[in-house]
Amino acid sequence: MENWRRNLEELARAGMLRSLRTIEGVQGPRVRLDGREVLLLCSNNYLGLAGHPLLARAAAAASLDLGTGSGASRLVSGSLALHEELEERIAAFKGSEAALVFNSGYAANTGILQGLAGPEDIIFSDALNHASIIDGCRLSRARTLVYPHRDVDALETLMKREWPQRRGRWFIVTDGVFSMDGDMAPLPALADLKEHYDALLMVDDAHGTGVLGATGRGSAEALGCLHRIDLHMGTLGKALGGFGAFLAAPRVVVDILVNRSRPFIFSTSLPPAVLAAAIAAFELVGGEEGRHRRATLQAKREIFAAPLRAAGLDLCGSTTQIVPILTGSPHPTMAAAAALLEKGIFLQGIRPPTVSEGRCRLRATIMSDHDPQELAQAAATIIEVLHASPSPDPGSGPH
Ligand SMILES: *Cc1c(COP(=O)(O)O)cnc(C)c1O
């Protein structure tokens, strides 16, 4: 215990301590944080569906009808018709043969990679992939070769090097939209490579699902290569406003995962309310309201990002609703986040290990329900706070 207390004190000294806060209210543009109303700029509820009455009603009806729990893993007490309906919907959405629902994005990434890859195999993984992909690579015991962020040439060099002694399966795994940078994977070029080197391409579209592409099918739709992705992973807890995750893939992949994927096999399945909300969310995302919300989100993202860019701030190459503002090292980052909170703006300072040393940032996320004036005002306040910061930190100093 004493040891852990010391560890926590060391983290606090380094500006690296993490702690929890209490909020009240739905994940809308404004919430109450520790009793005070603030502008919420750190929710992944991009399309406002987490507070949407259609989803809430679907969830409530499913609970009243079928109860609150699924009782066991699907291999033990069976699938609900709702699991199957949701999976059919997801497969159709991604244009895949089949789909499998997981309990969270974290469970999906660990379970997909552990279930499909083994010690003979190689996983080529982008340097900025989500932590759950990194953990999935570890659990799979495959050799993992990390390529520099979005660097297709470096990836090809690695693949060429490995080609002569190839034994097992090869996977290329990437976030569609990178969660901390808000930039996108070069999916068409990755698809070229996977075809040339006979690999499988897996895209984690936690932040693209519902948001990107004309019909919300995600990053690959936006980049015109939806049908070239082998393994579409996506989540239900961000733009889709609920909870859970999925893989859309060929039938044989889903069948193997049902037999091998430990987070799928050894965990109680999602309950009726969550499944019904997800089905309602896909209905909404695919319709006119979804299209409208996506367009609104893009416009509001620009209202927020344009002045930041014009002020010379480094937005880490973001082109999406995730807008990071590079600040450098932990202390100035956390000081800026605290100063912003003081002014009623709630966003997170992001530090290692979530991002690499010297790449700390404020990470803002835009929602379709945000008020444009409030976004413009928030951008102005961020500029003011960062320029007023006593030690502008390029992140290059020792630390
Ligand atoms: C949030 C996220 C996950 C995890 O999804 P959860 O459903 O929250 O567990 C996986 N991958 C990426 C890129 C994410 O941003």
From TrEMBL:
Swiss-Prot/TrEMBL catalytic activity: 6-carboxyhexanoyl-[ACP] + L-alanine + H(+) = (8S)-8-amino-7-oxononanoate + holo-[ACP] + CO2
Enzyme class: transferase
GO molecular function: 8-amino-7-oxononanoate synthase activity; pyridoxal phosphate binding
Pathway(s) it belongs to: Cofactor biosynthesis; biotin biosynthesis
SUPFAM superfamilies for this protein: PLP-dependent transferases (SSF53383)
PROSITE patterns: AA_TRANSFER_CLASS_2
Start and end residues of each Aminotransferase class I/classII large domain: 37-382
Record-level GO BP terms: biotin biosynthetic process
Cofactor: pyridoxal 5'-phosphate
EC number: 2.3.1.47
Pfam families found in the cross-reference section: Aminotran_1_2
PANTHER family registered for this protein in UniProt: 8-AMINO-7-OXONONANOATE SYNTHASE (PTHR13693:SF100), CLASS II AMINOTRANSFERASE/8-AMINO-7-OXONONANOATE SYNTHASE (PTHR13693)
Protein family according to the UniProt entry: Belongs to the class-II pyridoxal-phosphate-dependent aminotransferase family. BioF subfamily.
Function, in words: Catalyzes the decarboxylative condensation of pimeloyl-[acyl-carrier protein] and L-alanine to produce 8-amino-7-oxononanoate (AON), [acyl-carrier protein], and carbon dioxide.
Subunit structure as annotated in this protein's UniProt entry: Homodimer.
Protein name: 8-amino-7-ketopelargonate synthase
Lineage: Bacteria, Pseudomonadati, Thermodesulfobacteriota, Desulfuromonadia, Desulfuromonadales
